[in-house]
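Workshop exercise sheet. Pairs work together: one partner reads the sequence aloud, the other fills in the structure field after running the prediction. Swap roles for the next sheet.
Pair: D.N. / O.F.
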Amino acid sequence: LARMKCRVISAGGGRHLNLLFFLFLFFPSASVIAINPLMLQTPPTFGFLFDIDGVLVRGRHVIPAAQEAFRKLLDSNGQLRVPVVFVTNAGNCLQHVKAQELSDALGLKVTRESASSVLGRNPVSLFISVPLVGACVGFQNVVTIQDVRKAFPLLDMVDQSRRPKELPPPTTDFPTIEGVILFGEPVRWETSLQLIIDVLLSNGNPGAELAAVPYPHIPVLACNMDLLWMAEAKMPRFGHGTFLVCLENIYKKVTGRELKYEALIGKPSIVTYQYAEYLIKQQVERRGWPSPICRLYAVGDNPMSDIYGANFYNRYLKAACQARAQAEVKRSVGVADPQSEDHSEPKEDWYVSLESCKSILVCTGVYSPHGDVPADPHESTVETVFHGHRDFRFDTSLLEASYVVQDVNEAVELVFEKENWSQE
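Structure field:
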């Protein structure tokens, strides 16, 4: 838990909002780690978005195909031949440590300058320390989950060994909590579930008596919706999405109402891919490439996160392209109203040049061609196989990968072939 003070811009102007951060085990979701290559002789017009767990590594062990893939991505000087961004919903260490781990495993230099997460409209640096997370995004007055436990020890009663032996004096000066942000799965689920429910039912005053259940409840924002993720074990492990399922169902069972989110961040949300696109753009600008990036290839192992997200973003790009084309037609015939033009999107040539985001599914992680999810997603007519978040629509077309390959090495070979790009 981290209670942080920030400025929120609304239609009525600026106001201060106190947020309670539940920074559980590691760091924010949807972390995006970019590679900073040097100048290449032949500028590419495509780039890669790589998931990490289940694609490049399994837990602490690198997947051999990843090393083969990055040998193809490097030139004779050890520099990347195409822009690459790592897009992951999870992390198990500090950003510079993760960058070093990837550098050692893949045999190249991974920079930390673009290693960040998407939170609202601004990236949030990956720090274990809750106070540092708050400081980097402008929050103050940080309170951890242990601080809340300590302030209200009678709320955490599942583990008898942690119950107070003597009745503590009541806490009277604890600040009111005005928002909840969920970053990742906790260590003690029972404690976190209980305290979050207490905060929601008490309108931010967990030490108060329960009167009428407030609804709508205080704002809740969640990051990392992955139900499962792949480590060294042969079967997938529970992710933060599983924790969210527990929280949502407990809240509904207790109150009879749906838990509402102000926002959902991380794959498969659009904002995650927009930020990854921004990092690709930064690489292009640093390199001085004359040709813009027109196509992105997103490689992942999770159909419900990586494939759904890439296809969702591809659909967004197509819709944006169509809208721009229609606007251009109106302008060409002199019917456009300048005051009605949408100025919210960037107008740079690079931005409008991005045509597609193709999804590539690998079989080295969560997805198994012999599992419960059919290879042909059109056969998935029962919604119970959908592992996506509750608030994302079950759409079989978004679960269908553009390409299915065995591993990341085959993915790179496939893209090079599609792009007529030399594999030497």
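Discussion prompt: The CA atoms of residues 284 and 292 lie 7 Å apart. What would you look at next?
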